[in-house]
Specification:
Chains A, B, C: InterPro entries: TRIC_channel (IPR007866). Chains A, B, C: One of its GO terms (molecular function) is identical protein binding. Chains A, B, C: It is found in: Endoplasmic reticulum membrane. Chains A, B, C: One of its GO terms (cellular component) is endoplasmic reticulum membrane. The structure is a homotrimer. The first copy, chain A, is mainly α. Chain A has one domain. The first copy, chain A, is built from 14 helices and no strands. In chain A, helix 1 packs across helix 11 and helix 10 runs antiparallel to helix 11. The N and C termini of chain A lie far apart (about 45 Å). Chains in contact: A-B, A-C, B-C. The interface between A and B is large, with 31 and 44 residues.
Chain lengths: ~290, ~290, ~290
């Protein structure tokens, strides 16, 4: 007989994302598109192009997952119900009289609610990706992590690629040095759910889904309210870096003579301790742009 | 007992594209490649690269359709007969003594005939794409429209992408605001044939193929003879825009305060009527470059 | 009863690439990555990104082959043993105390041995690609050549594309005019093995593998010792060019009036003979950067 906690988490894990959580996800995605400079003008001049970009924003993670598993990237277009829902939200957002939806979205409680519900869909996507990849490759835990990650946070790759092809995005070489917060938190979730799927974690999936989702929603709402990019990972990242890459102390003094370190900003001392490395990593996080 | 009209359209729809219509399509495609600056020099210096680009121009639509349906993009190379034909045409065009083929192609009747026959292949590609996508997704009418469109006019996407990777093409952000004439007419055809395939239009396929092809050929030849980019779509596009996006009147006055409208050229008045929107759309068409 | 020669070549063709030849291939690939400016800094700041780039360098040819045949590009991640081996080599190269591995690799005998063993893996990849493509398309000899080529030398396409997306690589339009030595020699091998597979060459596969590998290793080591980019292909390329494209003599005089030849450097004379063409090709090879 399950405890009330088990019943709660089990019922939570069986919640369908359609329609309310999906609506929140589409709302947040299309509003992010609308805030890009020139997006509204594109919607008037070439609605088809604007609609297509909005679809990429809404379904980008699934498209990337299809590309990586050699499935038809167009498959998302076959799900007529979700496409109709996302298209309606796109239409309402861009063509509502007096721009009512954007004005309604500018209230913080509305943004918090929508962002929180979107984070719930993130968990569902990660779990779906991990399970699906396991059906392809039985012991391919790296593939499971990758597909979970792609579904949960891969939309940015697709939308950035579309902008690259359109000429509206010039990738900066150092953008890839800093992983965004959604990318990090989705990778963490993907690793956790993969370990759970392979029976390496002694926790049931529905409990893990509930805990991870609460963590996602809490940190996201906290970050939005305090308007900072403080991430809770800094101490753990430093510890992990020191354990795995702790040789950098001796490493850096030899390397300085042979490598051009254009991306380094004055770490110069040969007596640099791991603390200097840690402070570099902490400095990096405070300048990371939120996504 | 079929009428003479039915017999004509039925015989027309059973015409094979191989070899004469295919030859015309390859001829127009490779001549378009040859007219690009530096193409002949590339053919001398690196014939393999030039041959590959020519193949992308000839088979680009099919390649894009394969990519979208997760089929081997190299599949077109397995059709040895067509590859041999296209390769021979590439070789003759680029390496003919005294450049005879280019000189022959410069006569307008030759261009009109080749362009007309190429437009016939467009219909066959659209119909093939719609039918093929239907075998993948039974009710996926959006997928059917997309694949019909990809096969009929998707070659430009593939060749532009190849140039992007090679460094010879810098995409302009506003290119995507204007859909080219072939893209529009292929989209229209794809929608029509999808509706016919799903029994929403009370016309047989062979009749529709004949009528649509005659429309394509007539407009293409008229545009080439009159040397204008006048398109017959402007009135219908205006009507459709006004019906679907007719709220823009109130919309634009609120939007002006919140959005940077860098791509707008002096529509500034808050009393802008749908006619101003229509005149913008008409102005856009007269400056569209023909393809 | 096989001759000693047959036994030798047969035993050679049955050698497994795992683990020693694979280790050499990963070593050479990751050292090539490490020598790029800024690579060590990326490894410190974002180890995950550096690890992913190293995996693309090690498995790029197989990834390209999967993309071309519409198989999951992530498939290489399912081979846990090879991924673990390549990851260990990446970790040791980038994070070894006092950079011991790079210093050890700077000795010429070590480089020669590793490069020689890497060339052996090239033969195995070409043969694997040709055989695999034949299982897809029975008579598709162009596909077989393409897949053999992709597996043997396609890694550069994948790594260049990754850099293009990251913003660290601007493709030069004339890079594609010059095929690198590995690309040429892999194409030659792919053609030879395809012909052998289709019974057009009266030589057994194991004999061909042995001879081709010896040719690869000998030319690679000679080029590294003499530190030149002299390629043994120049006379054959000239002969082939003259046979296939010998009309250029009359061709060039007509073309000069109609084409901008920005990539031509003063070939201007209308009495240019095929020898001028040959000297251009020879000049081109002496300036080709080695890979």
């Amino acid at each position: 007989m399950d405890s009330p906690w088990d019943e709660l988490t089990l019922a939570f894990s069986r919640t369908s994302m359609f329609p309310f959580f999906d609506i929140a996800h589409y709302l947040v995605s299309v509003m992010a598109l609308k805030r890009q400079p020139g997006a509204a003008a594109v919607a008037w001049k070439n609605p088809l192009s604007s609609w297509f970009t909005a679809m990429l924003h809404c379904f980008g993670g699934g498209i990337l997952s299809c590309v990586l598993l050699a499935e038809p990237p167009l498959r998302f277009l076959a799900n007529n119900t979700n496409i109709l829902l996302a298209s309606s939200i796109w239409y309402i957002i861009f063509f509502c009289p007096r721009d009512l939806v954007s004005q309604g979205y500018s209230f913080l409680p509305v943004q918090l609610l929508a962002a929180g519900m979107k984070e719930v869909t993130r968990t569902w996507k990660i779990v779906g990706g991990v399970t699906y990849a396991n059906s392809y490759y039985k012991n391919g835990w790296i593939v499971m992590i990758a597909i979970g990650w792609a579904r949960g946070a891969g939309g940015t790759v697709i939308t950035n690629f579309e902008q690259l092809v359109k000429g509206g995005w010039k990738p900066e070489a150092d953008e890839w040095l800093k992983m965004s917060y959604p990318a990090k938190v989705t990778l963490l979730g993907s690793v956790i759910f993969t370990f759970q799927h392979m029976k390496l974690l002694a926790v049931s999936r529905h409990n893990l889904m509930f805990l991870y989702t609460m963590f996602l929603v809490a940190t996201k709402i906290t970050m939005m309210i305090t308007e900072t990019a403080t991430v809770p990972f800094a101490p753990f990242e430093d510890t992990l870096s020191r354990m795995l890459f702790g040789w950098q102390q001796q490493f850096s003094s030899c390397e300085k003579k042979s490598e051009t370190k254009s991306s380094f900003n004055g770490t110069g001392s040969s007596t640099s301790k791991p603390i200097a490395v840690a402070s570099d990593t902490v400095k990096k996080k405070h300048t990371k742009k939120s996504e």
